[in-house]
Specification:
Among the domains are: about 75-205, Rossmann fold; about 440-510. Strand 14 (about 295) and strand 15 form a beta hairpin. Helix 4 (about 130-140) packs across helix 5 and helix 8 (about 250-265) packs across helix 12 (about 430-440). It is α/β, with parallel strands linked by helices and about 500 residues long. The chain has 13 helices and 23 strands.
Length: about 500
């Protein structure tokens, strides 16, 4: 049996599953420290199913903690960034476009040293080991806790990053090191940004992962804990400590994976309505469609794997104003159960209008029976229009597609969306995010540029496939179950010589 947990801005949801069956589910308020809310949710699903902790084989968690650390500029490690590049790329130094308050929060130190490669693997300049050792001494003496290393075109040849990391570990044992080729894709600044974000989260990630593991063990849940990634797959705790930045968009991803599982829809749109925001994404072959452009996190432009999601301020706790008419963007969030009209409070919310319109029976409908019916209809119509526009924005053609409604706030929506061939609100829709975490597989992905001068196209693809499979196994997949689910090839005609970019994704079942 598995427990799936997903932490949102308003609620923390959890489910206990046996195979594909949901045995129990719960929705609790997200706590400021997040961790205690996770433990409470785990306790509640076990109690609801009258099960003992020893029946649980694994716990899968999707959390906002690492995202919150970046957005709130809290708990970030003192970090250094080394770019291996000289004499190239000096016009745009590391972190050139970062918000100043974020740079200050992690007390970044920046170093630019010889190294890096051309697109075809030729060195820009050789690695200066003596210079690296001197730099390591400076970093050690300054009290830096984490380090990001980025070499030009490291996805083509990562050897300089790996050699630099080995030298620095000899000088500074125990330092957390993030290598850009393991996190980001082609694109120096964005890959470097992703590695720097990962580095400044690394110490906090270790504390969170170890802390949750210890708290679960105290409840006799001494089982493997896995963490949701941005691409809809899982990684084990050791992997999460090394790559915390790969979890920052796991919430919408879990909802989409859960929606695909509950509805049996593999290609279509998913609308996830929470307490504060609505996320709209697209399913492709059962997995979230990946963003094809750069993604901004906490004001930082990055290029690692992220779901293509359109988010806007609409949720069950959204405040409603009559004069002038408006819905949100402010929300009661976790206070909905205390301050909303239908719960005996004094604040008019979107949920109150849905209850007054007879769409749901949350709370006590008698508290909203005197709301003007024409006004509540106006509110619901506007919500419907906003969601229809969002779905249309995410579509890539004019063809109708199935739409799956999930999240507790989806009770605000009628099962009529413009451009939809079918609108489905499946059973357990309110905890689809936790289900998505519980049923997720383990994945590995490769995104590299290959020169086809010294190897054939088939050899390059084979090499990428082998590496993707190994990355999946390293992340916790059972080797016998790993399969390739995606192979993309893009010839890079703007570069000289015969060069192609290959992306391969492999997934497999958890090795429990």
């Amino acid at each position: 049996m598995r427990i799936g947990v997903d932490v949102g801005g308003t609620n923390t949801d959890a489910v206990l599953m046996s195979g594909t069956d949901v045995l129990s589910k719960t929705k609790t308020a997200t706590t400021p420290d997040v961790s205690s809310g996770i433990i409470t949710a785990v306790d509640e699903v076990l109690q609801a199913a009258s099960k003992q902790p020893d029946i649980v084989q694994g716990i899968m968690i999707g959390t906002t903690q690492f995202t919150n650390a970046v957005v709130e500029r809290k708990g970030l490690s003192r970090t250094a960034v080394i770019r291996l590049c000289l004499p190239a790329t000096t016009m745009l130094p590391p972190l050139v476009d970062w918000p100043s308050d974020l740079k200050d929060a992690a007390s970044f130190q920046i170093y630019m040293l010889p190294g890096g490669h051309e697109f075809d693997g030729r060195p820009i300049s050789e690695l200066d080991e003596a210079n690296l050792i001197r730099t390591a001494s400076q970093i050690r003496d300054s009290g830096v806790q984490a380090l990001a290393i980025c070499s030009v075109f490291s996805p083509v040849d990562p050897s300089f990053e790996e050699k630099a990391a080995a030298l620095i570990r000899e000088e500074i044992p125990g330092i957390k090191i993030s290598l850009s080729h393991e996190i980001g894709r082609i694109g120096l600044l964005e890959r470097e940004n992703a590695a720097a974000l990962n580095a400044c989260l690394s110490v906090t990630a270790e504390k969170i992962v170890i802390g949750i593991g210890e708290a679960l063990a105290e409840r006799k849940l001494d089982v493997p804990v896995f963490w949701s990634q941005n691409d809809g797959t899982l990684m084990d705790s050791d992997f999460a400590v090394r790559y915390p930045v790969l979890t920052v968009s796991s919430g919408p991803t879990n909802s989409m994976r859960g929606a695909a599982f509950l509805s049996d829809i593999r290609d279509g749109a998913v609308v996830d309505v929470g307490g504060t925001t609505t996320d709209v994404g697209m399913l492709v072959n059962g997995f979230p469609r990946e963003a094809s452009t750069f993604v901004t996190i906490g004001g930082v432009r990055t290029n690692f794997q992220m779901p293509d999601v359109f988010s806007f301020a609409l949720g069950g706790g959204s405040l409603i104003s009559q004069n002038p008419f408006s819905i949100g963007p402010e929300s009661l969030g976790y206070r909905l159960n205390q301050d909303g009209l239908t719960f005996g409070g004094t604040v008019l919310t979107a949920t109150d209008c849905a209850v007054a319109s007879g769409m749901t029976s949350i709370g006590d409908p008698s508290f909203v029976k005197d709301l003007d019916s024409s006004f509540t209809t106006q509110v619901i119509d506007e919500i419907q229009r906003s969601v229809s526009e969002a779905v249309d924005r995410m579509k890539v053609s004019t063809e109708t597609i199935p739409v799956v409604l999930v999240g507790g706030g989806s009770v605000l929506l009628r099962k009529e969306i413009e451009g939809a061939s079918d609108v489905i609100r499946p059973e357990h829709f309110e905890v689809a995010n936790a289900i998505g975490a519980a049923i997720a597989q383990v994945g590995g992905q490769v995104d590299k540029v290959y020169s086809l001068v010294d190897m054939t196209r088939d050899e390059a693809i084979s090499q990428a496939r082998t590496e993707a499979v190994q990355r999946s196994i390293d992340a916790g997949a059972r080797a016998s179950t790993v399969e390739i689910v995606q192979v993309d090839e893009v010839p890079l005609t703007y570069l000289p010589s015969n060069v192609t970019r290959i992306r391969v994704k492999a997934v497999g079942e958890l090795a429990l």
